[in-house]
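Hey team,

Filing this mostly as a record. A colleague (T.K.) asked me to run one chain through the structure pipeline before their review meeting, and I want the input and output archived in the tracker in case anyone asks later how it was produced. No errors, nothing strange. Just documentation.

Input sequence:
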Amino acid sequence: MILLFDCPEKLDNNVDILLNQKSNFLGADPEEEFKVNIDGKETKVHPNFKLYLTTKISNPNYMPETFIKSTVINFLVTFDGLEEDLLTKTVKIIRPEDEERRTNLVEKISNNDKILAKLESDILESLLSKQGREGYNVLEDNQLINLLQVSKKSSTEINIQKEESLKVNKQLILERQN
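Output structure:
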């Protein structure tokens, strides 16, 4: 057994070769000799050989080939997260219309948040682009005033929609748990 600590997202070629050879060896005759070629040297490996890689990266982005050749276990999963995942899958089977409605609400809330962020960004960009101009008066900038009015109206509408969506989402969550 070999345990490698703090592996980066890009694995060393020797580790990759070992993973590749081990994945090819799976299902073969256990009595058959298992050899790997590391740095030009052929090395015998015990048939019960295990390789464990650990990382401190919370969400590692390994190459797809690495995921194919290995089993990845995320120990950051919590009981609540697993319970929520199981509940989502169960509701999706039993009451798919409720789960679809909840998914649409979450997407709507996310899209509204993006719109609010875009409005805020537009306002800041407008202010920064005109900042420091000689003779510039914010109170006389009709374009900025119109942008602020549109943003205020849009943000009020979005916040009302968001409150309603959150209420409906809470109701759906309560129904799911029953």
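Quick notes for T.K.: The mean pLDDT is 80. Residues 2-69 form one domain.
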